[in-house]
Design brief:
Radius of gyration: 21 Å
Number of domains: 2
Shape: elongated
Helix content: 25-40%
Structural class: alpha+beta
Distance between the termini: 45 Å
Number of strands: 7
Largest sheet: 5 strands, antiparallel
C-alpha cells in the first residue's frame, strides 16, 4: 500500500499525476482506477492509498481511494510509514502524510482504533525526542484545530511526560513545549530553583 497526493488531474481527459511517498515518484493516474465514492479533488490535500502496476508502459496507480479512517489496515500502513519517510514534495511544497492524515480525522472519530499504534510510537521516543518541538505529536497538539485529536494525543503523551526526570518536566513546563502539561505539585515545590533558572530563559 502506497500513500500519495494529487499533483494535478484533468477532469475532462480523466487522468493526472500522483506524487507518492515512494521517493516522491510521480505516478500516472487514470480515472478508471479511482475506486472511492468521493470524487477526486485537487483543491484539498487529503492523502489516499493505492498500489501500482505497469499499464501501457507507464507506472500507474491502481485501486485508488481516500484514506479510510475506520480501516485498521490503513492505519497500520500509515504508522509503518511514519517510522520511515512520510514526507511528499508536490511542486515546491513539502507535506507530511502522517500529519495531514491525523489533521483530517473526522469529528467524533473512535480513537480506540489507533490506541495501540499511538502508544507504540510514543514508547519509541527517547526523552530527547519527546521534548523536541519538531516531533509530530508536538506539532499536532500545538497547531491542530481538531480539539478532540489534540486532547486524545495529549492524554496519551502526558503519561510519558510525567515519567520524565523532574528537570525535564520543569523544562517542558517553563518552555511550554506542551502547553497543557503540568508537573505534579511536589515536583514544582521541590524544584522551584529550576523554575527560576529556566524561567529566566523564557522569551
Amino acid at each position: 500500500m502506497i500513500f500519495g497526493l494529487i499533483k494535478w488531474f484533468n477532469e475532462e481527459k480523466g487522468f493526472g499525476v500522483i506524487v507518492s511517498t515512494d521517493d516522491s515518484k510521480e505516478i500516472f493516474l487514470h480515472i478508471s482506477q479511482w475506486k472511492d465514492k468521493e470524487k477526486i479533488s485537487t483543491s484539498n490535500k487529503i492523502p489516499f492509498v493505492f498500489t501500482t502496476a505497469i499499464q501501457r508502459n507507464k507506472l500507474s496507480a491502481v485501486n485508488c481511494k481516500y484514506f479510510n479512517f475506520n480501516d485498521k489496515e490503513h492505519w497500520q500502513n500509515l504508522f509503518n510509514l511514519y517510522s520511515k519517510s512520510d514526507n511528499i514534495k508536490v511542486e515546491y511544497q513539502t507535506y507530511n502524510i502522517t500529519e495531514l492524515t491525523l489533521n483530517s480525522i473526522p469529528e467524533n472519530f473512535n480513537f480506540t482504533i489507533i490506541d495501540t499504534n499511538i502508544q507504540e510510537i510514543i514508547n519509541e521516543f527517547s526523552d530527547d525526542d519527546l521534548i523536541n518541538k519538531t516531533n509530530l505529536f508536538h506539532k499536532i497538539i500545538n497547531s491542530s484545530n481538531n480539539r478532540q485529536l489534540k486532547d486524545y494525543i495529549f492524554d496519551n503523551i502526558n503519561k510519558r511526560l510525567l515519567s520524565l526526570s523532574p528537570e525535564n518536566q520543569i523544562l517542558i513546563f517553563n518552555k511550554q513545549i506542551f502547553k497543557d502539561f503540568l508537573p505534579s505539585k511536589d515536583i514544582l515545590i521541590n524544584n522551584h530553583h529550576l523554575l527560576l533558572d529556566f524561567g529566566q530563559n523564557i522569551a
